[in-house]
Write a structure and sequence with these properties.
Mean pLDDT: 90
Helix content: 55-70%
Low-confidence stretches: none
Strand order of the largest sheet: 2-1-3
Radius of gyration: 18 Å
Number of helices: 7
Order of helices and strands: HEEHEHHHHH
Number of strands: 3
Distance between the termini: 12 Å
Strand content: 5-15%
Shape: elongated
Number of domains: 2
Pfam family, one: UPF0158
Length: 143
Amino acid sequence: MALMDDLVEAYLQQFDEFMFVLDKKLGLVFVETVSEDTPLSWSSEESANLVAIPTITKAESTRLMQDFASKQPENKEQSLQKALEEEDRFLSFEKQVEEFGLENEWEQFERDNAKKYVQDWLQLLQLDYNELNEKHAIHAADE
């Protein structure tokens, strides 16, 4: 699996008890458990190579679902937008997507947007994706 796939997966996760981290030296993504009882125990040398991967917020997820809905034919758009007004909007939206048979389109739309976000994030940090991906390929094969 390419590094971008790992970064996109990490970005799309929403877990309070986990943090996804990119090791810039190895080009690997890993998970750190986060809690008040377990502070991060990175040495200063380790922390220089590690960067927390941002994850999508609920507000960003909602905006993305609204954007996807707006690109659908009117009857589907109305149903998808209405699902986003429900108390459990994420579940309602997913059910509506499934009912319309739009799972593949939604997944591709979500991943494409996540990929753009990750690319912008890497650029902001001045990290070279190609260099990281080469490191990833070497070290991922060792695992």
